[in-house]
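Reopening this ticket.

The earlier resolution said the output was attached, but the attachment link was broken on my side. Pasting everything inline this time so it's all in one place.
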Amino acid sequence: MEKKYLVVKNRKRVARVEADEIMYVLRDGRRLIVATMEGEYIYYDKMRSVECISGSEFYRLLDRCIVNMNYLKSVEVARRRLRFQNGDELFFGRDACSRMKVVFRDYLIKNQRELTDAFGSEEDACFAAEEEKGYKEASEGSSGDNALRVRQKGAFGGDM
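Inline output:
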């Protein structure tokens, strides 16, 4: 199967970002912010240019945000935020968070079923999921030290 990727380009550089590395894509005015575990890419483009990364793990929360649920850690409706594995937080309205909570729950249940089918029992599937999570954390090394800043509506800065 061919891997999907985005071509991110601005005045300083051109980069290829694989779809499975993208945590989320956020539109801020005319700029797109593509967040990965290593950092973020900021460039000018339209949201429809990133629709090539569609898949079951991606969910378009609003017109301005696409979330990769593989990197989503929690959805907190009361605090109106999405928390990602690297510490990033995105803040949205109550309705958007409520929708995301339902979609994320369904996604987790579906993935748990797939693991259960693959491993035979729910206990084996839980063990495999925890083992994979531990492997990912160990292979990432000290990436937690380089956590991106908290994102709030309209509070983006920096350059790629």
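Reporter confirms the inline version is readable. The two ends are 29 Å apart (CA to CA). Residues 94-119 form the longest helix (26 residues).
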